[in-house]
């Protein structure tokens, strides 16, 4: 429903406000649906567990004396559970889509060009997270509260790991739309720290590592041009993404960093 409220930039203030209000309403509906589905999954898991227990303790024993009935019933039971699991899996992926749509909407509406490239870059740096980051972490904290209680074990780990990967990818793509000054790089690191502290609640080491590497990669906006090569020495795994992000420095052309990149890539 959010797509219905995406408008161009050359519109009246009244129309823009109406579109924003509609997008907020659609986002609220998505959040409500997310909560409802998570509760449904939790109840479904409990029901299936009771059914499996009853089948094992009662029905299965009654079928043992009947020739061929027991293995056939076990196969049917397994097939039925698989159908339920497939439906739940599809719904959980749609839940991740819903969450990421709202994250992308907040990034688009709340992130400002001046967040990472202040007109007055000589002023004292702002060490607070950007408003977009604050809004997103608050949203994720609120909407995922029900997921933390509704999902268990490997289901919970798999869901949160997939969401963490999608969030990491979405943020990478988002930041490539901006140009960064040194103080903007510091603000970016503060955002990354905020996101990283939140995803630690996922208990997913692979996601923690990705956000730690993001923090290291943000240094490409802070260090002097001649120090860029040293960033790759300890963490070669960030080279590919870092080389793309170096081009987003506001002094990329004036400091002739392109020639430095060629030497780094040839090593």
From TrEMBL:
This is Uncharacterized protein. It comes from Avena sativa (Oat).
């Amino acid at each position: 429903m959010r797509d219905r409220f995406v408008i161009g930039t050359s519109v009246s203030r009244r129309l823009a406000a109406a579109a924003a209000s509609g997008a907020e309403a659609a986002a609220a509906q998505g959040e409500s649906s997310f909560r409802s589905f998570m509760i449904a999954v939790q109840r479904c898991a409990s029901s299936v567990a009771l059914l499996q227990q009853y089948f094992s303790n009662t029905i299965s024993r009654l079928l043992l004396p009947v020739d061929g009935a027991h293995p056939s019933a076990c196969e049917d039971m397994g097939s039925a559970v698989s159908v339920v699991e497939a439906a739940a899996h599809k719904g959980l992926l749609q839940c991740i889509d819903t969450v990421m749509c709202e994250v992308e909407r907040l990034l688009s509406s709340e992130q400002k060009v001046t967040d990472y490239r202040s007109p007055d870059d000589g002023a004292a740096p702002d060490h607070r997270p950007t408003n977009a980051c604050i809004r997103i972490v608050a949203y994720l904290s609120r909407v995922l509260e029900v997921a933390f209680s509704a999902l268990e074990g490997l289901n919970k780990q798999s869901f949160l790991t997939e969401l963490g990967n999608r969030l990491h990818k979405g943020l990478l793509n988002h930041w490539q739309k901006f140009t960064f000054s040194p103080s903007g790089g510091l603000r970016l690191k503060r955002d990354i720290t905020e996101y990283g502290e939140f995803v630690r609640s996922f208990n997913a080491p692979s996601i923690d590592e990705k956000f730690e590497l993001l923090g290291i990669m943000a240094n490409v906006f802070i260090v002097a041009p001649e120090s860029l090569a040293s960033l790759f020495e300890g963490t070669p795994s960030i080279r590919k993404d870092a080389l793309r992000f170096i081009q987003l420095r506001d002094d990329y052309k004036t400091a002739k960093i392109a020639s430095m990149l060629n030497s780094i890539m040839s090593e």
